[in-house]
Amino acid sequence: MNSRRFGFIAIIIIVLFSVVVSIGKVKQPPLLIVTSMLATTIAVATPLTLGALSGVFSERAGVVNIGIEGMMLTSAFFGWLGAIYMYHVFGFNNGISIVLGLIFAIITGGLMALLHAVLSITFKVDQIIGGTVINILAIGLTGFLNRQLFFGKNSFFGGSVPSSPGVLPTLHIPITEIFAPICSSEACLQGINAINRVFDQKPVAISAILLVFISHYILFNTRWGLRTRAVGEHPKAADTVGINVIKMRYANVIIGGMFAGLAGAYFTIESVPSFEPLLTNGRGFISLAAMIFGNWTPIGAWAAALVFGASQAMLINMQIFRDVIPPQWAFLQESYIVGLTPYILTMFILTGIIGKTTPPAADGVPYEK
Amino acid sequence: MPSEKQSNSRVNQILRSALDASLIPFLAIVTAVVLGGIIILSVGGNPLLAYSGMLEGSLGSKKALSETAVWASPYIFAGLAVALAFKGGLFNIGAEGQLAVGAVFSALIGYALPGWLGFEIPAFIHVTLAILIGMITGGIWAGIVGALKAYTGGHEVINTIMMNYIALNTTSFLLNGVMKDHSPTNASARTPLIAEGARLPVMFEGLRIHWGFVLALLVAFLIWWILNKTTLGFEIRTVGLNPDAAKYAGINVKRTIIITMMLSGMLAGLAGAIEVTGLNYRHELGFSIGYGYDAIAIALLGKSHPLGIVLASLLFAIMRNGATRMQFLTQLPVDLISMLQALILLFVAADAIVRYIYRIKAKGERVVLTRGWGG
After folding, report:
1. Nearest neighbour of B148 by CB, restricted to A282, A347, A365
2. What whole-number distance in Å separates Cα of residue A106 and Cα of residue A85?
3. CA dihedral of A295, A296, A297, A298, whole degrees rounded to 10
4. Most A CBs within 10 Å: which of B158, B166, B367, as the mutation test of the A interface?
5. Is residue A244 part of a domain?
6. Residue span of the structural domain in which A197 resides
7. Which of B169, B300, B370 has the CB atom closest to A340's CB atom?
8. Total domains, chain A
9. pTM listed for this prediction
10. What is the ipTM of this complex?
11. Cys bridge to A70: A117, A135, B6, B310, which one at CB 3.0-4.6 A?
């Protein structure tokens, strides 16, 4: 990630925010709009960030992973299903059921990734086709089980979807409590409150941000990271110095899958406690674009994910300010048109106009001894 | 005499290679069906009843056969679309979007053109125009991705998926807005009915099978001919096998990539156009969900060979069409079919697994698609 690309990201985010502020300022004070939009941006960027990290680990080790979408979808389903079973069938209380659901989601992601690893590393299936298999399998599996378990013959729940134990709570990070005493003016206090509003997020969103920096540290400052990158750049050389290429690739693909699992948990355990077929809606693919734009680095990928988050936050805010959109901006009322932004951005980014990206040299190439 | 012997051995050779080529897909289907049976058992269903119900519902009567052909027609076009791209070394996941765009514009020509011109268009010309426009717009939709790939290296896998979402959003916008059927009884996002003259005639009175099925078979043959008997086909295949070699041989690789993508999109657009002109007589939001992925499975199952694709399309049509009867007999959800198709795809794509299970040695070359992200 060079500064030019970070600059581009900053400009896009500023433009998106300015549009919303200039329209919404008749209804709400600008500071409130900006903070609430920042909070939304961070929240909706969560699955994209985690998806991109999933891709970074897998591809840094040399395995192309376009199955992130399917991994997210399956994890979202099994996390939600696990929480419901723990709650209704095993009689755990809400909190424990939700946490167990979260763990189920992460394990599901890991298992789907294991399948991808078996296909692409052991059986040397074309990795793009392997990923597509994961995506199609995810749609079939979740669609079938969703119908069968709740509405099928002999269904335990007798033809209706039971209430879910709920979602993860918002965590309050005590920024105000810590810094308020050193504030002397009203403006300062307001500012701190505003900052606090941005960072009062739910656990998966917060852990996504932490994981960005942890991943960066692991990839670039530890022996594990060095070995991962070696395996993805030049597996033969890595092999000759005694690194187990197959094992490293398996491990990193599965770690990546667990990130995708956490992203899946965002949808059904953190955001909305329900599941519908195809709910990931392309987020896995947008993650890949974020990963590419971030040049296969965790921090870069996060920055790119925030751009997509901002464009989604703009869409959400346009609905809030629907009634005050001036007539010459009427097209902003059309959610179908505003909703195009992330997709067009993705295609634009992939053209490489904002600088070429370099994938790991052995990305997508099965290792043959 | 020797010439007869030679031709005999040639027939033998063709038969043997056809047998070889169909062995893995056949075993993949068998494995998936067995695994599907185990899944049915595990949820308390009866696999034999389910499968026989599926066959009965899709092949058991004249009407069932006609419906199977109706299902198969768009599958053949969409499967050919993906397969043609495969031959050119491109992975078109965007058949879904191209199909939707083709369907929307085909419907537009179907219901609005007489009004714009102010006179009735002769039936034959009108339906031809509707189909052609659907084909061309599908081609343009995919051509954009081809051009991005050729000139900027933007990867077609992500771009076709993005174009799917763009197509979905745009068609939602159009079908809820300017193109919405404004008849008082309508609440759903759909176009008005297309004019009588823009409809493909049915083949037999009382059945829904229409000439689009025959058109699909003809186009399958045409694609085989283009790929194997023309310079363009040779160029497409060469670029697909080795773009560097193609460049040294003097083939304009960029142009070929764009043409391949456009042809692929035209086929997908045709799938949408014949659904509109032959079956639904309008475009309705959401009818095309899932065609894109089915088309990939069909192309892989058919080994990207037009004849294979026709057979794979028929198989998928049998499954889809028989699903309702299966559900009626066993109370298993229709979604079981998606599961079964995913398993078939898994075993076809990962032929190494099938070879491993049945102890078959690999021979011949493998299709290589992954060329990194840079293009």
Report:
1. A347
2. 16
3. 120
4. B158
5. yes
6. 3-152+171-350
7. B169
8. 1
9. 0.89
10. 0.84
11. A135
Q: Is residue B368 part of a domain?
A: no
What angle do the packed helices B291-301 and A127-151 form, to 10 degrees? 120
For residue A113, being part of any structural domain is answered with yes
- B198 occurs within a structural domain: yes
Return the CATH number at A114. 1.10.3470
Q: Do A346 and B162 touch (CB under 8 A)?
A: yes
Q: Is B153 left (phi over 0), alpha (psi -120 to 50) or beta?
A: left
Tokens standing for B33?
């069906």
> Is residue A157 one of the residues assigned to a domain?
no
B221 inside 8 A of chain A by CB: no
The tally of domains found in chain B comes to 1
Give CA–CA dist B234/B236, Å, rounded.
Answer: 5
| Full pLDDT tens readout for chain B, 375 residues | 455 666 677 788 878 877 777 888 899 899 999 999 998 898 888 999 999 999 999 999 999 999 999 999 999 999 999 999 999 999 898 999 999 999 999 999 999 998 898 888 888 899 999 999 999 999 999 999 999 999 988 888 889 988 998 999 999 999 998 899 888 888 888 999 999 889 999 999 889 999 999 999 999 999 999 999 999 999 999 999 888 999 999 999 999 999 999 999 999 999 999 999 999 999 988 755 678 888 988 998 898 999 999 999 999 999 999 998 998 898 888 888 888 888 888 888 877 788 888 887 766 555 555 455 644
In a domain, B2, yes or no: no
Q: Is B357 on the interface with A (CB under 8 A)?
A: no
User: Is residue B175 within 8 Å of B190, Cβ to Cβ?
Assistant: yes
Cβ atoms of A306 and A9 within 8 Å: the answer is yes
Helix (H, G, I), strand (E, B) or coil at B123: helix
For chain A, say whether B324 makes contact (Cβ under 8 Å). Answer: no
Between chain A and chain B, how many beta carbons pairs sit less than 8 Å apart? Answer: 162
Cα B208 to chain centroid distance, Å, stands at: 20
Q: First vs last Cα of chain B: how many Å apart?
A: 53
- Alpha helices in chain B, H assignment, sequence order: 2-42, 47-59, 62-87, 95-117, 123-152, 156-176, 212-229, 231-241, 243-248, 253-274, 291-301, 306-330, 336-349, 351-358
Residue B135 lies in a domain: yes
Decide if A163 is inside a domain.
no
Distances (CA, A) of B176 to B154, B181, B283: 32, 9, 12
The CATH number given to whatever domain includes residue B56 is: 1.10.3470
- According to the 3-state scheme, what is the secondary structure of A154-211? CCCCCCCCCCCCCCCCCCCCCHHHHHHHHCCCHHHHHHHHHHHHHHCCCHHHHHHHHH
From A342, which residue of chain B is nearest by alpha-carbon distance?
A: B162
Compare CB distances from B350 to A119, A334, A337 and report the shortest one's residue: A119
Domain enclosing residue B42, as ranges: 13-357
Among candidates A137, A147, A363 on the partner chain, residue whose Cβ is nearest the Cβ of B372 = A363
Q: Given an 8 Å threshold on Cβ–Cβ distance, is A64 in contact with B93? A: no
Residues of chain A with C-beta less than 8 angstroms from the C-beta of B333: 144, 147-148, 151-152
